[in-house]
Amino acid sequence: MPRIAQDATVQTVITTFEMTPGTCQDLLDALRAAYAEFISKQPGFIAAGLHVNDAQTRIANYSQWERREDFLAMLRTDEMRARNRKFNDLCKSFEPVMYDVAATFDTK
Predict the structure, then answer these.
(1) pLDDT bracket for residue 101 (50, 70, 90)
(2) pTM for the full predicted model
(3) Of 3, 12, 76, 82, which alpha carbon lies 20 to 30 A from 67's?
(4) Domains of the chain: which residue ranges?
């Protein structure tokens, strides 16, 4: 499970995918398969979550990695490059962006 905290020493990556409602489920299935079969088994992977908006026109993917280099190494593999080409065919655009946690808030 992802842990969101300012003092976390992990690399956070948020990727947004834009698609039509007609391809949302196909892309979601492809993303689930990528995590189950490949991404979650890569060195440095910690956790991830997939979120779909109510109009099924966007998917937000939140992932955490031990180090920035671990995420970049995963992206550079032949396996992930092939999967990214498939993702690209299923959506209008997608963009992974690395973030640092600036602040967190809760009800406690």
Answers:
(1) confident
(2) 0.91
(3) 82
(4) 11-99
Tokens encoding 82:
């092939």
In CATH, which of 1.20.1050.10, 1.10.10.10, 2.60.40.3200, 3.30.70.100 is domain 11-99?
Answer: 3.30.70.100
What is the per-residue pLDDT across 48-90, written as a single tens digit (0 to 9) for each? 999 999 999 999 999 999 999 999 999 999 999 999 999 999 9
